[in-house]
Each structure stands twice: as structure tokens, then as C-alpha cells.
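Milestone M4 deliverable, item 7.
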Amino acid sequence: MLTLVITAGLVHEIPDGDGQMRLYPAYRLPDPQEVFPLDDAESAAQRSLRRHLAYGGDSARIIAMFDRQACDTRRSLQVSTVWRG
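Output delivered:
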């Protein structure tokens, strides 16, 4: 399992000051299609999942700020108060 994790680029084996090999997490995790042979459909599904996990919550909060049906009165008052200044 450790060999798979190192080969996939999730961690790096780097010698420390004493020459002991240590495991360090990768700073930027590789995309699955960079490591594994995925077909086009699976690559698209992985990209969509990553995009949703990265931006889904933020975009939903932004949309809710402008969607009057989704906002309660208190939220609308706070937004309009901020814009008045």
C-alpha cells in the first residue's frame, strides 16, 4: 500500500538531516488522470467532482445572496444594509 501511495505521488520519500528516509505529504496532489489510466468519461467525472468540492459551497452561498426566494427577511436586511453603507 505504501508503494502505491508513493508511486501515485501522494507522499514523497525524502531523506532527513540524518539520512533517514521520511515520508512527506505532497503539496499539490496529482489529479487522478495524471496517475491512473482513466477513460474520458471517468476523467470528466473526476474533474467535475474536484470542481464541485472546491467551489460548490462558495457558489451556493453567493447564489443564495441574490435568490430572493431562498433568503429569509433577516438575511435580505443584512445584505441591503451592507450595500447602503
